Amino acid sequence: AGTWHWRDPARREPLQTDASQNWWTGQLVAAPANLSRQPEWLSALHSWRDACQAALNLSDALFDVPAIAWTQRAFVQVQMHPFDAFFFNASSGEYTVRRWLDDLRQRFGGVDAALLWPVYP
Description:
Elements: E1 3-8, E2 13-16, H1 38-55, E3 77-80, E4 88-89, E5 94-95, H2 97-108, E6 113-116
Parallel strand pairs: 3-6
Antiparallel strand pairs: 1-2, 4-5
């Protein structure tokens, strides 16, 4: 098994990857081969997460902010560029927002949020 670059702050040892050692398709934290060990594995994973949050002084209080609670229910999100051909007609110089939204509705059934990325990179 390979090792992942994050270390468990509580145990001071690297987490193990799956046996493939393929970072592109492998799991970062190997699940147990025996299903009966899943509760123990999940408990260890939660402990690791909590230790990492504590070591980095992280808080999940942000999730309780009412003004951004909608983000927890925004499951379909898209990123687009202002020069997207469905969003802007270069020939006429006009924005075609309705066309863009109609396309998203047809392909995805609509979206919950959109990120307009005006620059690259």
